[in-house]
Amino acid sequence: MLRTRTVMSGQTSHKSEAANANSLLRFYYTSRPFLFIMCSGNELFYASLYLLYFNEGPLIAGMGLWRAMAYSLLPVGILKSVLALMQGYYAALNLGAIDVHERKEDATKKH
């Protein structure tokens, strides 16, 4: 959906500052360290959940490593999910605005 909305609105990338009116999404895409932390932390979160399914992992301070990773990376996983929902929300709004604009143009051409 993001790619479609970006192309339809004439933008080159959904990561550009012009494409993101929301300040959190703009920071997410313009700060490479933040983007790296979010993407790698999210992947490690889900990897730790997968590994936790099989066993606890090596014990560190009385807790399994995979469980400790899952608990510590849970905020990253939640924030990454919120960012994905925000991206979809803003893409849907922009796509709707483009559709309304195109329908208005078509209506004026018919009259």
Automatic annotation (TrEMBL):
The organism's place on the tree of life at top rank: Eukaryota
Protein name: Uncharacterized protein
Protein source organism: Halocaridina rubra (Hawaiian red shrimp)
